Automatic annotation (TrEMBL):
Substrate binds at R249, H250, G251, E252, S253, E254, Y255, N256, R299. The active site is at H250 (tele-phosphohistidine intermediate), E319 (proton donor/acceptor). It comes from Taeniopygia guttata. This is 6-phosphofructo-2-kinase/fructose-2,6-bisphosphatase 2. PROSITE patterns: PG_MUTASE (PS00175). Pfam families: 6PF2K, His_Phos_1. Gene3D superfamilies: P-loop containing nucleotide triphosphate hydrolases, Phosphoglycerate mutase-like. GO terms for biological process: fructose 2,6-bisphosphate metabolic process; fructose metabolic process.
Length: 579
């Protein structure tokens, strides 16, 4: 299946489980395989999970494939570092087969499950392993981008081992000192065969970024496209220093009391009381070098002014634009715009207010805020309900379906503390009463809507639901069959042509048309029959190792694939000129 013929997937879903294409699905014409490289305890999994969370948040369907998970499924009982010795032939065979199984799952995700980016999280320290991955990607028309993490700081390595590896499934109920000793010996096993990326010789034609000592230095080589540049930019902004991010909404506003959305009203009496309580809370925390950010709307500025500290106003932190529905209550919107009200309830993330924004638009707007939050230390962000939901969804890795319904009550602070592979959240209420502005997700289905409300229809200025419930797979770019071609007829000679026709005459003349249809090429890499393996030392061997054959990868040559592909693509176009 070619990249152009594949459906582009996204997290949002419409009626009957229909997959929606997000704007980010058009960033690249081919699926991308991100390949991690580096010795153990270099932060590869940390970067993989963080990068995946970011790409999914901006609308690019991404999934991590961690090779350690496949290895632990194949070998239930890990005994010692001897399993990772390069001269342990039996273990090396198991590790290679696990890698091939993982790559088969990568292929399935990118070609069949509408994935856009797959992250292959493994050491991949040898050039032989990387060549295998490159051949796999070439056979399936995937782009490859390598991310190598290099670290020679012993303190950083030791801290990573103690924070993450001690609690690893490889070391159940083991003493910390024993874990440290075994893991350091495991690292030495990998060092024997480690071949770093070489931008001056063997790897000068590869696309990659080399992250040195947790972001102190970077080396970037041959970035191919827009999505790879976004990956590079993101990785250059993240850090691992301890910090705390505080998220809260403004104090209760006058419009909150009236149930009106949007607008630029000031704080109510209880909202002013909250701002004083917030000041007391911040002082008690004794936060070092705290930065305070607000929107440019009156209610967040008034909340920050009570703190008595410097604060920055960000226009992109303003509340979601409700367009024609600004300063209206939900009851007024339902009465005046019943169709709009129903459409928003059916697909809140993708719905765009007429003349306003959708949550999807808001996520795009807030991307610079996320980048800056990743660069900073301790920050307090005083924003609005929709804005806070988008920021919270990024840190908690929430889907587009969950994002619009995250609870962000007034007069409540969310304390976010980044940890190894996620984010710890504490909810702190300052005990100041406020109205409840949260609306739960409606339980009604589209066919259960009141008769006065029309079903959802397509609106060109919004990424709303399609008219049909059938799954529609869109190409990633305009391919030959996406639009009829209008070809000009043969040009007459200058003598026979006579006077040049006027513009009106040329526009009114009937033009011959060409209908073009493109043949969809099926997948060229079919699964191979399982190859039985006999193990003498490993006691458990689940079905994972029988899913793919090592010899199958050796027997499939690129020449054979090209011949098969050329045969299938013979005469792919059929022309039918109209007269």
């Amino acid at each position: 299946m070619s990249a152009a013929a594949r459906g582009c997937g996204g997290a949002p879903r419409g009626r009957a489980g229909e997959k929606q294409c997000s704007w980010a699905s058009y960033m690249t014409n081919s699926p991308t395989l991100i390949v991690m490289i580096g010795l153990p305890a270099r932060g590869k999994t940390y970067m993989s999970k963080k990068l995946t969370r970011y790409l999914n948040w901006i609308g690019v369907p991404t999934k991590v494939f961690n090779l350690g998970v496949y290895r632990r499924e194949a070998v239930k009982s890990y005994k010692s570092y001897d399993f990772f010795r390069h001269d342990n032939k039996e273990a090396m065979e198991i590790r290679k087969r696990c890698a091939l199984v993982a790559l088969e799952d990568v292929k399935s995700y990118l070609l069949e499950e509408c994935g856009q980016i797959a992250v292959f999280d493994a050491t991949n320290t040898t050039r032989e392993r990387r060549d295998l991955i490159l051949n796999f990607a070439k056979e399936n028309a995937f782009k490859v981008f390598f991310v190598e993490s290099v670290c020679d700081d012993p303190e950083v390595i030791a801290a990573n081992i103690l924070e993450v590896k001690v609690s690893s499934p490889d070391y159940p109920e083991r003493h910390r000192e024993n874990v440290m000793d075994d893991f350091l010996k495991r690292i030495e096993c990998y060092k024997v065969t480690y071949q770093p990326l070489d931008p001056d010789a063997n790897d000068k034609d590869l696309s990659f970024i080399k992250v040195i000592n947790v972001g102190q230095r970077f080396l970037v080589n041959r970035v191919q496209d827009y999505i790879q540049s976004k990956i590079v930019y993101y990785l250059m902004n993240i850090h691992v220093q301890p910090r705390t991010i505080y998220l809260c909404r403004h104090g209760e506003s006058e419009y909150n009391l009236l149930g009106r959305i949007g607008g630029d009203s000031g704080l109510s009496a209880r909202g002013k009381q909250f701002s004083q309580a917030l000041k007391k809370f911040i002082e008690e925390q004794e936060i070092v070098d705290l930065k305070v950010w607000t929107s440019q709307l009156k209610r967040t500025i008034q909340t920050a002014e009570s703190l008595g500290v410097l604060y920055e106003q960000w226009k992109i932190l303003n509340e979601i634009d409700a367009g024609v529905c600004e300063e209206m209550t939900y009851a007024e919107i339902e009465a005046k715009y019943p169709d709009e009200f129903a459409m928003r309830d059916q697909e809140k993330y993708l719905y765009r207010y007429p003349g306003g924004e959708s949550y999807q638009d808001l996520v795009q707007r807030l991307e610079p805020v996320i980048m800056e939050l990743e660069r900073q230390g301790n920050v307090l962000v005083i924003s609005h309900q929709a804005v806070m939901r988008c920021l919270l969804a990024y840190f908690l890795d929430k889907s587009a379906d969950e994002l619009p319904y995250l609870r962000c009550p007034l007069h409540t602070i969310l304390k976010l503390t980044p940890v190894a592979y996620g984010c710890k959240v504490e909810t702190i209420s300052l005990d100041v009463e406020a109205v409840n502005t949260h609306r739960d997700k409606p339980s009604l289905n589209s066919h259960e809507l009141p008769s006065r409300q029309s079903p959802v229809r397509m609106r060109r200025n919004s990424f709303t639901l399609r008219a049909s419930a059938d799954t529609v797979k869109r190409p990633r770019h305009h391919s030959l069959g996406s639009k009829p071609l209008h070809l000009l007829g043969p040009l007459p000679s200058l003598e026979a042509r006579g006077p040049f026709p006027s513009l009106e005459a040329r526009e009114g003349a009937e033009q011959p048309q060409l209908e073009v249809t493109a043949q969809v090429v099926p997948s060229l890499c079919s699964p191979s029959p399982p190859l039985p393996v006999v193990l003498s030392e490993i006691q458990t061997l689940p079905s994972i190792l029988s899913r793919v054959s090592v010899s199958a990868w050796k027997s499939s040559s690129l020449d054979g694939i090209k011949k098969k592909k050329n045969k299938q693509l013979k005469n792919p176009l059929k022309t039918n000129p109209k007269t």
